[in-house]
Specification:
Number of strands: 0
Strand content: under 5%
Distance between the termini: 45 Å
Oligomer: single chain
Radius of gyration: 19 Å
Number of helices: 15
Largest sheet: none
Structural class: mainly alpha
């Protein structure tokens, strides 16, 4: 437990700071606490820095607390929200993954990016960010360097996307359902999608979470397909356990079995855990680690993100 304490303490301190700043500035500058958490985390790691002794605690917040927060978020899902998505959302997600992968290949050739790095950036952009990059790297037998570059690129672009989408919503408010679906369909990681969608309100957050988790479901079929294409045996990715957990809590929430005060408490815990995860996410965006990838890899990822964001906006209008 000791190895986690320093990192956990730092994340808790910065998350509390994010909460305080959001309260102070809310009357003048509309920015969500989750976005403040990412910004403060990024500022801290790049201006103050952290040593390796903080890594375990920060990683724990990024992974375990985020997953727990997502599972608890299932209690908030509504039958109306699930009905809104419908079966066509699955086909739209499949189309989105195909488009993202195709764009990654096309621009890899134009920009002369390493083939496997480009493929991983495309997969991270279309499925679930850094988690997809790591999960699928074995399926294409990518080198560690390829994986590291792709993780850095999608993490940075995802964090920028959260801030960009939040500002867009504040400047040009749109329908919560469409904004949530747009965030969930086009932003890189699960954390990025939830943070951005949350800025649009409760309905937007619900929509963003559900369609993002449909994207996560693509991990298994995509990994099996890639393993076959690249001739890699026994390297398929497994479906994350938190997706099943989310489905279970959603079913419990829809059943009305739990009293409303208990559900409210669980949702507050979920919000708190996700805030810690967002702050930890900010602490992982160290510009020193990506200084050698500022060129073609980031350009590649940014172009894909820009095109997919526009296409995704149109696709969400069809749901």
């Amino acid at each position: 437990m000791k190895k986690y304490l320093k990192g956990l303490s730092l994340v808790l301190f910065l998350a509390t700071l994010a909460f305080i700043i959001q309260n102070i500035t809310s009357n003048y500058f509309k920015l969500e606490t989750l976005t403040w958490g990412i910004l403060i985390g990024m500022a801290w790691v790049n201006l103050v820095g952290t040593s390796k002794k903080y890594d375990c605690g920060i990683a724990f917040c990024q992974k375990k607390m985020l997953k727990t927060g997502i599972v608890l978020l299932g209690f908030k899902m509504s039958a109306e929200g699930i009905k809104t998505l419908g079966i066509k959302s699955i086909f739209i997600v499949i189309l989105y993954v195909i488009l993202a992968t195709s764009l990654a290949i096309i621009f890899q050739r134009i920009l002369k990016v390493n083939k496997k790095t480009a493929m991983l950036i495309g997969l991270g952009s279309s499925i679930c960010g850094a988690s997809a990059v790591v999960a699928l790297s074995d399926s294409i037998e990518a080198k560690k360097e390829d994986t590291a570059v792709a993780v850095s690129v999608v993490s940075l672009l995802g964090a920028i996307g959260v801030m960009g989408y939040t500002f867009i919503f504040k400047l040009y408010p749109m329908n919560q359902i469409h904004y949530g679906l747009w965030s969930g369909l086009t932003l890189h990681g699960v954390a990025h999608a939830i943070a951005a969608a949350g800025a649009g309100g409760a309905v937007a957050k619900e929509m963003g979470t559900m369609i993002k988790l449909i994207r996560v479901l693509m991990l298994v079929p995509v990994s099996l397909l890639l393993s076959k294409i690249f001739g890699v045996k026994e390297k398929s990715a497994k479906l994350p356990g938190y997706v099943l957990g989310f489905c279970i809590t959603t079913a419990i929430g829809l059943s009305g079995f739990l009293p409303s005060n208990i559900v409210d408490l669980l949702l507050k815990i979920s919000d708190f855990l996700i805030l810690l995860a967002m702050t930890g996410l900010g602490l992982s965006v160290d510009f020193k680690n990506i200084k050698n990838e500022i060129g073609s890899a980031i350009t590649h990822g940014a172009i894909i993100f820009g095109i997919l964001s526009c296409i995704g906006f149109v696709l969400t209008m069809m749901i």
